[in-house]
Design a protein that fits this description.
alpha+beta; CRO Repressor; 2 domains; four-stranded antiparallel sheet; 9 helices
Length: 190
Amino acid sequence: MHTIWHDMFALGIPVAEKILRPLVVYLFLVLALRLAGKHQLAQLNPFDLVVLLTLSNTVQNAIIGEDNTVTGGIIGAATLLIVNYAVVRFLFTHQKLEHLIEGDPDVLMDCGVIKEDRLKEELLTIEELQTAAHRQGFKSLDECERAVIEPGGTIFFVRKEPAPDEVKQARLMARLDAISQQLKHIQSKI
């Protein structure tokens, strides 16, 4: 029985190494995911999901090393959670550094015109942009005035406003329809 408890909780490597390993892996993954682009963060396709799942399995041994104890796992997990909490808090109070790490929003569509060079830079296809527009209630990209991909990967769309002439015409047509309905109603009484 003593062996079971020892195998579960006695660390095989020093505590400092147990803390340093997840810290190094965390920093590497933050940089790697930042370089992968905004699109990968929010718009996962099946290939991206497979890569993320495989990536987590790949770095597992780098985090835990030769140590498979419960204590080692708890130290590694706690280190990741604490480092992430500290980084998020630090970046919240240092907006310039956060901006440097996260990057800028990128305009994908402006004045109703798709910027294909920006789509290419973000590794987005027109079909993926169309799908994102559908998710936000647009029937087509023709309804969009502007599309911006945020640093977190979310795409924000702005609806085209109708031209003043179109609004005026729509009001006139609505009035004509109302007059037509009134005339039909009057004719039916006669």
